[in-house]
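Please go through the protein record below and explain what the tokens say about the fold. Record follows.
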Amino acid sequence: MGTKVRPVGKERRMLGLPESLPTDGRKAFTGLICPDCSGNLVISVHSDHISFTCRVGHSYGLSELVLAKDTAVEAVLWRAVFAFEELEALLSDLRRHGLTEAFDAGAVRARAELAREQASRLRAIIEADRTLTERRREPGETETGAP
């Protein structure tokens, strides 16, 4: 049983939510994972309240999940930046200490430069990204936007 995908032009796009949202407190699996533990998230709708819960028991409202996912994206990007920067530092230091005999020296230099460039590109992506912020609800407005 794989994740359902929906055709989008020539591409296929993963579904985050089921085609039909569950009603009356029923639950349905989503194509999303928990931002805290990476377990599969289940969606549940109780009248005007949408909630997501993972197998471990982490629970999110709709806004909380969106904001947690947004935060998780930034954290993953920063981990990738640091990984590229560390790789570049390691390879540069290996060259500086003459410890590249196991590799082609030109390949080590090229890989270090590429890692530096990739870290720089990811930093630019992070800097250009705009985190979603929750709008204020009107008095009496519900989580789903209905009065």
Observations:
- The mean pLDDT is 88.
